[in-house]
Amino acid sequence: MIKWNNLNTLSSFENLSKVERVKLAEVMSGENGADRVKKYTIPMAAGLSYNYAAKQVDDDVLEALTKLAEEAQLAEKFEALYNGEVINTGEKRLVLHHMTRGQLGEAVEADGVDKRTFYTEQQKKIADFANKVHAGEITNAAGEKFTTVVQIGIGGSDLGPRAMYLALENWAKKNNTFKMEAKFISNVDPDDAAAVLNSIDVAHSIFVLVSKSGTTLETLTNESFVKDALKNAGLDASKHMIAVTSETSPLAKSDDYLAAFFMDDYIGGRFSSTSAVGGAVLSLAFGPEVFAQFLQGAAEEDKLAMNKNVLENPEMLDALIGVYERNVLGYPSTAVLPYSQALSRFPAHLQQLDMESNGKSVNRFGEAVDYPTGPVIFGEPGTNGQHSFYQLLHQGTDIVPLQFVGFKNSQIGTDVVIQDSTSQQKLCANVAAQIVAFACGKADENKNKNFKGGRPSSIIIGEELTPEALGALLAHFENKIMFQGFVWNVNSFDQEGVQLGKVLAKRVLAHETDGALKVFSDLLNI
């Protein structure tokens, strides 16, 4: 029987708090460090591996984390989730994003429908549509091919798909699978939509409107912006737009769209990149086969997340180490540092994925928790970040745990040798150096040049950022965040914190304001 208990009521957590702290600078120095790097690694899907040698753990800490995983019933809770139990207690919903890329357990039926069949049918519909667009069977009114796809959405309808597109754009061009350029409109700021529309040929563009409810204010506003541009160009908007929405939304049966592809309430926006939300734009941009490879990488990583052995489950171990850093060592934030320009927007996606999921101060039963939950997430790709905020990471007063991502090979393959090394070698040399520099530091009598070290990091390493590797990377973090929510006993699958601002904004627009809200409205000339 599954029990949902607060972290600080678990005896294993109390024991974890008492385990002797690891002196990272000592254990990562010399041959001890070399042995740790070889020992503390777990294989992932798609040729990736998770290395946690530079984390503040040893065998004693790992044993305590294993006991915490057992008492918190992490494996059992994941099993309950993918077998269709109501895990999203806030909204009384199932959580089924894993099923968009495979069925991990029993068949799940909801609303009288086999959900795995539902998702695969939507994927097939998207694939058929994309293939017809690429073949010129679906065209604009003049019978000409569409050359650009524009996604209109916000939050999870933008951040994940945009990050995935940018991650694979150069790979697709190199591997001759690049079909259409993709652009994204998300911000209700009119400059966002105007800039995108000014950069494209609207006559040869197809627009993907993404709104599960069909009522998202920013998205519908941007849709009107686009429709106005199409009208001004003498074009029929209904011949240029498709919808990704729920079957019950007002968009589902509208004649305003060439086609509609469906998702449902069992997939949260931030977990929707492997659903139709990511499927439509990525299949149009790169072809359905590439999207299928992306799904395959995510599915294989999901299977690893089922492993009850913590030391063979990269997601679960990453999650538990993060809990140890947050709740025992007291570190308030985590930096995500991909040494890959293709992953330039991946940290932004993880900001939403992590902070919207676990940024909670009440447990699953609505009771206040008296321990820290989700950390602040931020990041930039290396080596750019080194010339930005690494000063604070190395010598600031707060210790910030780091999650590096690196690949042995570049996507495009074009490189140059300068001073006896390629650019890719320089990139990889930097990430290796940073890991050791953060962990070991450097003593100097000049305190301004003294590095204390003891700053923990992990790294996910791969051969190359391929669709399969990207899918595995995405699933790793989705599952890590889920496991952390289980440990903290919070509901990682609702987001009530985004609602209050929306409600007040509608009051402002309706001029139903008083007090400070009225004064700010007047100051902004609303």
TrEMBL record:
InterPro entries: G6P_Isomerase (IPR001672), G6P_Isomerase_C (IPR023096), Phosphoglucose_isomerase_CS (IPR018189), SIS_dom_sf (IPR046348), SIS_PGI_1 (IPR035476), SIS_PGI_2 (IPR035482)
Keyword RNA-binding appears in the UniProt entry: no
Annotated HAMAP family: G6P_isomerase (MF_00473)
Positions annotated as active site in the UniProt record: 356, 387, 502
Catalyzed reaction equations: alpha-D-glucose 6-phosphate = beta-D-fructose 6-phosphate
Main function: Catalyzes the reversible isomerization of glucose-6-phosphate to fructose-6-phosphate.
CDD domains to which the protein is assigned, alphabetical: SIS_PGI_1, SIS_PGI_2
Keywords annotated in UniProt: Cytoplasm, Gluconeogenesis, Glycolysis, Isomerase
GO molecular function: glucose-6-phosphate isomerase activity
Compartment(s) where it occurs, according to its Swiss-Prot or TrEMBL record: Cytoplasm
Family: Belongs to the GPI family.
Broad enzyme group: isomerase
Lineage of origin: Bacteria, Bacillati, Bacillota, Clostridia, Lachnospirales
Protein name: Glucose-6-phosphate isomerase
Domain of life: Bacteria
Keyword Cytoplasm (UniProt): yes
Pathway: Carbohydrate biosynthesis; gluconeogenesis; Carbohydrate degradation; glycolysis; D-glyceraldehyde 3-phosphate and glycerone phosphate from D-glucose: step 2/4
